[in-house]
Amino acid sequence: MAALKVAVIGANGRMGQQAVAAIRQADDLELVAEVSRGDDLTNVVDAGAQIAVELTVPASTKENLRFLVGQGIHCVVGTTGWDEQSLGALREQAAARPGVGVLIAPNFSIGAVLAMHFAAQAARFFESAEVIELHHPNKVDAPSGTAVHTAEGIAAARSKAGLGASPDATQHGLDGARGAVVGDVHIHSVRLRGLVAHEEILFGSPGEQLVIRTDSFDRTSFMPGILTAVRSVQDHPGVTVGLDKYLDLR
Ligand SMILES: NC(=O)C1=CN([C@@H]2O[C@H](COP(=O)(O)OP(=O)(O)OC[C@H]3O[C@@H](n4cnc5c(N)ncnc54)[C@H](O)[C@@H]3O)[C@@H](O)[C@H]2O)C=CC1
Ligand SMILES: O=C(O)C1=N[C@H](C(=O)O)C[C@H](O)C1
């Protein structure tokens, strides 16, 4: 079978460089274009790419996707910054190109994907839930896309189970002390030199605690997920959020 032709957008970045190397090493994939900031995206089309891996910055990703989807190119997106409004616009763009698959993956690490899945399963059993995400200090967004997605999954499961917000008597304190709030779930963001990407999901009930922790010590942890997504995205037309949807998790 012919190798899938793949382009990487954001090829000079921390993730982009690793993705370029991983795709080059895969026998069933052919890297046909590397796009960096300032390069023309039409290079992707001219190179005949079937799939684009998008690893840029929140300020660039929506415009890149608008172009790529409009050209009928399947997209595997790791860049953060997608919210309900931008996802809605993307879904409309994808609907105008039936058959085109787009994966928005808040995290490609299998550990992080499983942590989010387990957190959603655990959420209905506990009175309290909070998320702590810890990252390298070069990260430009907070909270992390993974933490937002985790909190959304927990909030949906709690709401379905008829649970309200976690108990919290806080009345006084400094702004930000209780973190950001996504769907009633508090998220605390740590930025520390030496870290890569880490998350702790805390659940509490009277007399007990459950902690789900995932650690990416190196960006190689994201590569198997990216390769799986590249190989699968054509089979999932429309916009999918979360690599878990490609993994047959129950
Ligand atoms: N889904 C996942 O598993 C992961 C997602 N990420 C996310 O991926 C994104 C990239 O992360 P890093 O590689 O660490 O950032 P980075 O800052 O090292 O790389 C981003 C690259 O994109 C380039 N860029 C910006 N606009 C561009 C454009 N319009 N066209 C082409 N290139 C452009 C920048 O010049 C830079 O080289 C971030 O949003 C990050 O949160 C990071 C790690 C894992
Ligand atoms: O910027 C990063 O590094 C990461 N970004 C993603 C996020 O915001 O969740 C994924 C992972 O946490 C690494």
Jot down its keywords.
alpha/beta, 5-stranded mixed β-sheet, 2 domains, 11 strands, elongated, 7 helices, Dihydrodipicolinate Reductase, domain 2, Rossmann fold, binds the ligand O=C(O)C1=N[C@H](C(=O)O)C[C@H](O)C1, single chain, 26% strand, binds 1,4-dihydronicotinamide adenine dinucleotide, 250 residues, 6-stranded parallel β-sheet
Topology:
Layout: E1 4-9, H1 14-25, E2 29-35, H2 42-46, E3 51-54, H3 58-70, E4 74-77, H4 84-95, E5 101-104, H5 110-122, E6 128-135, H6 145-160, E7 180-182, E8 185-191, E9 197-205, E10 208-216, H7 223-232, E11 238-241
The structure holds 1,4-dihydronicotinamide adenine dinucleotide and the ligand O=C(O)C1=N[C@H](C(=O)O)C[C@H](O)C1.
